[in-house]
Amino acid sequence: MSTAVKVEHLSKEYRLGVIGNGSLWKDIQSWTAKLQGKPDPWTKINEESRIGKRERFWALKDINFEVQQGERLGIIGRNGAGKSTLLKILSQITAPTEGVVKMRGHVASLLEVGTGFHPEFTGRENIYLNGAILGMSKADIDRNFDEIVAFSEIEPEFIDTPVKRYSSGMYVRLAFAVAAHLNSEILIADEVLAVGDVKFQEKCLGKMKEVSEKQGRTVLFVSHNIGAVRQLCQTGALLDHGKLLMLDNVDKVADEYAKLIGQ
Ligand SMILES: Nc1ncnc2c1ncn2[C@@H]1O[C@H](COP(=O)(O)OP(=O)(O)O)[C@@H](O)[C@H]1O
Ligand SMILES: [Mg+2]
Fold it and tell me: Ligand 2 center to residue 254 CA distance, Å?
């Protein structure tokens, strides 16, 4: 087996906005003092000027793990644990503050926010656009086109409609079909199954398992549906407050998560 994803000392720091004094007038006085080089009149004891100070926090801190080619990894954790931040870094939507990510192959991502599709383009155009981004030739995409549309269950008359007119369910179905059928060695899915009906969710889980078993594609999967994570993945990664608490067999990790949330 070869390594498909390797993450080393990965950290992501977010900066939040300026923290004010609780009233606009006090903020103006503080800013005026700062501009005049005077001490901030609203400084609290044991504190430097609050103006211009930005709150920072680590959404991810010192994450290390490896995923083997063809492996299906489920990333589990409470809201705000850092799951989406990790997948965004792996999808190269955002850059890490520290650390490195090494990946072998193209990545197809389905993130919470509908990235990857252009709203003004039709379903058909988006299929070709995504294929081109993944380095496929037109002939390659042509060969997969009918299967993508069939999988998505989008009515044929909608395929030439701009995707901004799609319902959220249609949008996700097409996005999933594209990601699953186009050439990408690594498939990333963040909470995609939250939209769409149960039948389609089952179909997606089946498809992800199939592409990993038959084509050796690596799957990184985030879902609040722990049953779905157990069903699809072999390995689990438990994130909490930006830290990787556990990386092990998916059932062990899901049990640990249940303890963490007190169930
Ligand atoms: N663009 C951003 N700017 C500032 N903070 C962010 C941003 N994106 C996410 N966060 C914060 O980072 C933390 C991790 O968020 P996220 O990765 O979305 O968690 P999860 O997907 O596990 O719910 C949360 O506290 C969230 O509010
Ligand atoms: Mg998230």
Answer: 17
Q: What is the pLDDT of residue 106?
A: 87
User: What are residue 11's DSSP bridge partners?
Assistant: 98
Nearest CA to ligand 1 atom 9: 85
| CATH for 69-260, options being 3.90.230.10, 2.60.120.280, 3.40.50.300, 2.60.40.1260 | 3.40.50.300
In this structure, which residues have their CB less than 5 angstroms from ion ligand 2? Answer: 83-84
Q: What is the pTM of this model?
A: 0.83
Integer angstrom CA distances of residue 15 from 23, 57, 225, 241: 21, 7, 30, 16
**CA dist list (Å): 9 to 58, 61, 74, 222:** 13, 8, 20, 21
What pLDDT does 48 receive? 59
pLDDT over 80 (residue 49): no
Choose the residue to mutate in 10, 11, 13, 14 for probing ligand 1, maximizing ligand atoms within 8 Å of C-beta: 14
Q: Which of 12, 160, 181 is nearest to 99 (CA)?
A: 12
22 or 12, which is more confident?
A: 12
